[in-house]
Design brief:
about 240 residues; mainly alpha; 11 helices; disordered N terminus
């Protein structure tokens, strides 16, 4: 009994400290498990910044780089889920802020601007809840307040549209890099650049599943084996003459 109690106590301590059994402090400092994702995220941001500086006339890469960070996950479906939520939130927040901006600064019917501000926030949240995209609420309200509180009247519409596009571009760059350099999980699922249509379709299905169930769908051992066989068959088909 004492041994079992001690073991449970040790396991609780390990969980509380966020450590894996056998993991040393040096292992945690090295962050070996996250190295690949860090490198791929940095590459995605670098590619995004270079494209915006040298190919888009030194355009501001801020929202695109943020989209690139959201679009990079430990697997394609995770990156798609987070990145698509970022895009959906930015899109909805951008659409709602355009009329809200006019109402906020013109205060029709004598209603204080702060009331219109709050109504706009409620609408952004309500639309995301209707779509089941609860995780899109935060990015949606970010772009809403950024436009409402920082942009001059002369260009707030063009700024909003540009930020929506930039977010989508950043997410696509990260997803493209993930396809070019798929993780082990993605390789088991057959995700690569030649199957991007299928990957996007499956990513969208997983996004809807996660919004409904709260987590991404996971493959069991049998499903992973079936995916490997399917991937081998596709590879043979592509390279047969």
């Amino acid at each position: 009994m004492d041994g079992a109690t001690t073991l449970k106590g040790e396991q609780a301590t390990v969980r509380a400290n966020g450590q894996v059994k056998g993991e040393t402090l040096l292992d945690r400092i090295k962050l070996t498990r996250y190295r690949s994702r860090i490198i791929r995220t940095v590459i995605a941001c670098f590619v995004t910044a270079v494209i915006y500086k040298y190919f888009l006339g030194d355009r501001n890469p801020c929202f695109a780089c943020i989209g690139a960070v959201y679009g990079m996950g430990s697997q394609f479906q995770e990156g798609f889920h987070n990145g698509f939520n970022r895009f959906v939130g930015t899109f909805i927040g951008g659409l709602v802020v355009i009329p809200s901006y006019w109402l906020y600064f013109n205060t029709p019917f004598g209603v204080p601007g702060e009331i219109y501000l709050c109504i706009g926030v409620a609408i952004v949240m309500y639309i995301n809840f209707l779509l089941g995209a609860n995780n899109a609420i935060q990015p949606g309200t970010v772009v809403y307040f950024v436009v409402l509180c920082t942009q001059p009247e002369a260009n707030f519409v063009s700024y909003t549209i540009a930020r929506i596009i930039d977010t989508g571009v950043g997410v696509l760059i990260s997803l493209g890099i993930t396809m070019l350099r798929p993780t082990m999980i993605d390789r088991e699922k057959g995700v690569d650049f030649l199957t991007f249509v299928e990957a996007f379709t499956e990513g969208f299905k997983a996004w809807r599943y996660a919004n409904r169930c709260g987590s991404l769908p996971q493959l069991d051992a049998e499903s992973r084996a079936a995916k490997r066989e399917e991937r081998k068959a596709r590879y043979i088909q592509r390279h047969s003459y």
